Request: fold
Amino acid sequence: MSSAMVRVVITYVARPGQAERMRQELTALIETVVRTEPDCGGIHLLVDAADPNRILLIEYWTSADAFTGPHLTTPHLTAFRARAAEFIAGPPEVTYWDETAAFFAKGKGLTL
Reply:
């Protein structure tokens, strides 16, 4: 994965009793995004070990403009946002990150 890609970090919080649905909806959305959007280099979905109502996405995009432009107007994201209020407790927190260094232990199984 190119370090020139921008990382978009998104934090979601589920409505009470909706953590599993939020995870399922996000998983389905991610599968579509990765399969159909060429500017997306991949997405990690992480669940907070201490609070399953919190999900963190780390998304890899060719640029912030690719994320904020074409991606935000796709039919699959528009449909997701239309129903998100049913299972997400407010707007997500979205931040943009550039990688300056990465360190991995050899043989530990982590790949990017």
User: Anything to note?
Assistant: The first strand starts at residue 6 and ends at 13.
